[in-house]
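Thread: "does anyone have the structure for this chain?"

Original post by V.I.:
We have the sequence but no experimental structure in hand. Need at least a predicted one for the grant figures.
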Amino acid sequence: MYFDAEWEHVFLRLRFGPAYDVLRAPGLDGHRLRLYRLALHLSLVAGPLRLLDGDFPEPGPMRGIAEYNLERALECVAG
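Reply from O.Q.:
Generated one for you, tokens below.
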């Protein structure tokens, strides 16, 4: 499946954190990066919450993932 370069770079930034800087590509659209970052974080809120809706064992870490990504999503909208 093919995605936009901006979508791929949002994932790379999430995956590699501080090491992402060596992968940064010039010319990426900042608006698309922000949109895809928001979409990624919202997805990482919804997925864990769906799992927690059932009998997921040890719900604490999954709740933590949802809460962390909710905070990141709110940052995307606020700033």
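V.I.: this helps a lot. The chain has one domain: 5-78.
O.Q.: and The mean pLDDT is 94.
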